[in-house]
Structures are given as C-alpha cells and as structure tokens.
Amino acid sequence: MAKFKFRLEILLTLAKNREEELKKELALWQKRKHEALESLAKIEDQIIIAGREKVAKKNIQDILVYEFFLEKLRNDKQIKEDEVEYFTIEVDKTIQKLAEAMKERKMLEKLKEKKLAQYQEEQDFIEQKELDEVGTNIFLEGR
C-alpha cells in the first residue's frame, strides 16, 4: 500500500510558518503599543505634578521655567499619542494579515483532510478488489 502524500504540503508548511511569523510580529507591535501607553501615562502624571508645582511658585522666573517644562511635556505627550496611534494601526493591520494567514492555513488543512479521506477510500477499494480476487480464486480452485 502506497503512502499518502499531499502535493500541497509545502504550501501548508509555508502557511503555518507565515502564521507563526505574523503572531510574533503582532506580539511585537502590541508590546510597543503597551510601552508607549505606559510612557504616555508617565508623561501625563508629570504634567499634573509640574502644573501643581507651577501654581505653588511665587517667583516669575520659576513660573516661566515650569511653563517651558510643561510645554516640553505637552510636546512629548503629543509625540507619544502619535506613536500609540501608529502602533494601534500596525496592530490592526497585523491582525488582519494574521486572520488571512489563518484562513489560508485552515483551507489547506481541510483540503489535506479531504485528499486523505479520498486516498483512504481508494485504498479500501483496491484492497477489497484484491480480496475479492483472492476469494474468487479460492472458490474456483475448490471446484
């Protein structure tokens, strides 16, 4: 009995590898987004603290220093917000790519299962045919 060989096995392997690569890529984008969100939260905390400290100052020079510092923090906050938005878009893109890769892999796996079932049916038919011939030969020899 010949061994089953799926002709598209290479494509199935490639689809599985692509899916794994996309999972790693997704994890990377999610990590970067999480780090940017943490950094953004720290900047927002610094803005609140610096704003309180600025209000407590009496000297105009100190107030100006805090105002410049607050402006820098606001700029940093905007940059981090832009990063978070960018990472969110990349996460969404990667999720879509991953969904397509999973769909392709599942399609190839279903095709493989169908081909295996078809192969087994053919092998069963051949085996039954051989058994029928053996049975017929035994019957004819017994006459």
Structural features, described:
- The protein has two helices and no strands.
- With 143 residues, the chain is mainly α.
Quick description:
The chain has 143 residues and is an all-alpha fold.
What's the SSE blueprint?
Blueprint: H1 9-56, H2 60-141
SSE order, as H and E? HH
The number of helical segments is: 2
Fraction in beta strands = under 5%
Number of domains: 1
Rounded to an integer in angstroms, the radius of gyration calculated over CA atoms is: 33 Å
Helix coverage percent of residues?
A: over 70%
Mean pLDDT level: 94
Low-confidence stretches: none
Any key phrases for this structure?
mainly alpha
